[in-house]
Prior knowledge:
By secondary structure, chain A is of the alpha+beta class. In chain A, 34% of the residues lie in helices and 22% in strands. By secondary structure, chain B is of the alpha/beta class.
Amino acid sequence: xSANEFPFHPEMARRFEAIVFDWDGTAxxxxxxxxxxxxxxxxxxxxxxxxxxxxxGTHVGNVDGQLRARPAGPGRLYLALNRGSxxxxxxxxxxxxxxxxxxTAEEDAALTRAAEKTVxxxxxxGLEARIVSQRLNRRKIDLIPEPEWDDPPKARIDELLIAVQxxxxxxxxxxxxxxxxxxxxxxxxxxxxxxxxxxxxxxxEIGLTDKADSARAVxxxxxxxxxxxxxxLIGGDEFGPLGGMPGSDALMxxxxxxxxxxxxxxxxxxxxxxxxxxxxxxxxxxxxLLRDQLARRADVPQVAERAGWSIVVDGIxxxxxxxxxxxxxxxxxxIGTNGAxxxxxxxxxxxxLAAGVYDGAGAxxxxxxxxxxxxxxxxxTEHDRVRRVLDLHSAILGETVVGDTRxxxxxxxxxxxxxLAVLRAHIDPPDASPPLSPPSHHDRVQTDSSRQWMVxxxxxxxxxxxxxxxxxxSHVDRVVAYDRTIGEPRFADTxxxxxxxxxxxxxxxxxxxxxxxxxxxxxxxxxxxxxxxxQHAVRCALFHLMSSVADSGEAAVGARGLTGRAxxxxxxxDADLFVLPFLAATHAPAARAMLEYRIRRLPAARARAKDxxxxxxxxxxxxxxxxxxxxxxxxxxLSGNLVPIRxxxxxxxxVGDIAWAAMCYADWSGxxxxxxxxxxxxxxxxxxxxxxxxRLDTTGRGHLYxxxxxxxxxxxxxxxxxxxxxxxxxxxxxxxxVAWFGDQTVSTEEHRQWITLADALVDGYRNDTGIYEExxxxxxxxxxxxxxxxxxxxxxADMLLGRDRVRGAQVVKQADVLMxxxxxxxxxxxxxxxxxxxxxxxxxxxxSSLSPGIHASLFxxxxxxDEAVAALRLAAMIDVDDLTATSGGGVHLAAMGxxxxxxxxxxxxxxxxxxxxxxxxxxxxxxxxxxxxxxxxGSPLRIGVDRDSVSVDATTPVFIExxxxxxxxxxxxxxxxxxxxxxx
Amino acid sequence: xxxxLLAALDDSAAAxxxxxxxxxxxxMVDAVxxxxxxxxxxxxxxxxxxxxxxxxDLQVRVGDVAQSLIAAAHEHGVRGIVxxxxxxxxxxxxxxxxxxxxxQDVDWPVIIVPPDAPDRPVRRVLVAVEGDxxxxxxxxxAGSLHPEEWPEIIALHVFEPDTLPMFADQPVHETAAWARxxxxxxxxxxxxxxxxxxxxxxASDVVREASRELNVDMVVLSWNHHLEAGHAxxxxxxLASSAVPLLLLPATHA
Lengths: 984, 254
């Protein structure tokens, strides 16, 4: 039977990424059959990137002895054996154990007793049965120990079943089900908690695990490789019921495998369950199917569509297209490519951006457009229907076109090889577009026989790109490598990278990319059980946070990441305070790379401080290529008025924000090498700036005059509480670090001065009310509560009421005093969160997209969970629903970071404190469970909260503090019940 | 046969700017001017003199002025009608009754020319555009313009308190980002470099002030033919106060 002749069901006539199958009866006729066809096909499939999992009740010697496959990757070969008790991965050296469930001595004894007792009971009914083997975690009872039925082939399953049923009937036993029920009952009597009873007609087995455990283990492995169940084929020969019992292979159909395609090659005398494709044909059919899958490796892979894990855009909607394209951006931290369609259309704006490569000077500095790798030089017509699907779990964008052009395609920006973009497309009529499209007609593309390359240059660097493609007929495989350089690019490096990738091939590149993304999610996912829309929006946020930041070298993270050109790619406090904490807690190397961006610009910050007559380092409010200030000094605001911009001159807290980011990274990662080296340098330089900027009054109190706090409606002001508290913290932390690590450049006198100044610095706190004054004189302003005078917030209050009115009133743009409670809870007066939240929130317009997420966090900590959820939802939906009508210029990365912070710091109440992770969880009534993954001091953790307990899954022991009690959690799963009354 | 632009010339001082406006607009909309004079009693010396000077035939009809203009427009299948805005300071009506009746009764674009309209080419046009992406006015205008005769178009978007955006993180960047996205949603604007001006306030006030401040040569508004109290405040305001010709595009006009 050839692949072409095989009557496949249409559901099966597509490319799958993994094949999970039963061994005996499906892949081979029996234990002595020749498995060489299956072996060579399995090795070839693995070489082509397909993951294979063999599921069998028997042991590794039997299966591996018969299969003897030694794949060399990139596809993995798993053996899920011993009826769910063992998982092996097979490499060039043979099988290696991945996981094994082992019975305790008590369980083992209970299994033996249960089997013996079952045989005794059956014997009493007149049925001779025999315990045939004592295998790992199970006992096998032969119900028909007769020579004729010693080793029946699977093809005779229906005859065997009749013989067994007859035998049972003769003994007055009502079929296999009755035997199973008896065995189960006895197993419980003998003390087994969850016995698994299975039958293959000849035997009944009592065990601790079954094939369902195998399937769960395999699907967990596949998910970790970035393979969605939708991309998996499950094969067996016994899905249909047998003697009243579900077929043994039906156990593989666990919920984790929900979207898989299932086929049976078995006889299936009683039919197959709904959803299982019945092929029949036994191992021959199976081998044909493997051959067919091998032939389909040149196909375009399917992109999974899983609720909560994908963004689907049907058609092109002029009003939404640019925001859709931004949301569909695929990026690897080095380059970002928006999700504009591959074919040209006047309503779309394809764009490729490279992180940190700028052009222009001063305020005009802007991101440089990179050559495009994703163009098909053809127009979409009115007949063409475009559909785009982004799978967030594996960061693969699929696009299809049906109409005048027929296109199926996938593309990705490789997380395994940042700066490498990959496209596979089937396009009809065939297309001859080159791999690279220059961003402007000035740029020249060079070509040789096998590839193209070009460079685009800006004043702040250059982007070199080299592309190669394999195009035959309608099939295109394209790879393009990008390099960012300060000086002249070395094309040899870029072309070598593209050559290596091209040689490695599409499937290997796809597999490594999927796996990298799956790992990132494994350490970063947030699961909200009970709010699907919020869950999806949170995933969208995490996706863009992860994809926008490189994890080596330096990472310049602009306000819109790599998803658009708005805000010119300038780097604000958005990066350090809003984006970085998520990465510090989930993928520390990326947070480190963000800090590296600042550290490499310390010389520019030092030069500026010096120019302005201060010590230390003064970082710019808006930063781009060289670390000099790129904030505009004037511009038009929404009213059309030309206004001066003072943030570049006065918004000083950026200096402390960067110091805070360094400590945030160190607190989560425990990276002492950083802390004692560049971290210390950063803290010292920023502390020095503050110490030179603080002025002492005649009473000896310290002040910071002429600053702008996060509340930019009031500028400039004196003694902004947040700025002062941050400066105080900065001075103290620098002093601590110098005392701990030592720093030759800091004299005893300077060290003492930092502490003195920190103690002298006023922070506006009023003992009588427990409220911080946002800045000197704030309490004397017009007492206007914006919540009382507008019927909706957020609102840009300065535009609504006029700049002058707002400047003279207690109207706050965004969390300012409250930012102190959010970032520096230990620096704020204990118990001051509630009075300040009550006072400031109604005075806050939330006229910045950074505000709702921070308030969600604070509301959650204050136990005001309805308000917390509402604020979180607003923050999470800013780009999902394009609430600002500006998402087309890129997604609001800082707001996305604030979403994570609201969940982590607010709802979960996480705070790293030296060697202990503090938890103070709050679960809204509408959520059933909240779960999140973080890495604390190098230990990946999964923390779950439900109504009555906290669970911590750790791979190394970790200290957790909950409700003031410190728990040492072992390297496994720990459940900590809440005290009486459950969760607050 | 070319499309036609009907210029309604009376015997007042408004006739001159009406004809001048029609002659300037005609090539922009790929049309020729048809001049008409309607009178209840035979006369028309001013109109004749103007038409003669311009080298245009003047059609003369006798009867109800508005009804005759409308009938003539139907007969010629015109692309638009240019009429004078004779304002009477003793009535609450924002413009002369002929202009109002014509504008309200036809489905074509109507250009209402104030008697003191400046004598200058139409080089800069102000178009009041509605909320996010609802760009019908601009699209209608763009759709009827000759591709090579585009004036400079300033799209004016007015935020009223109800429609103010939620956020302006860094106002200058935000304004630029908002404007860029707004224009990207306008297919014609995108290609023809329409400039966006944004203002905050009561729309009728803002349009009037912006038309002066930006020194435009024509203002374009869309409307639904209703001028009763409470309707079309911007149209009413501009009819009453515009110093430059006002192009009214019926919202139903495709």
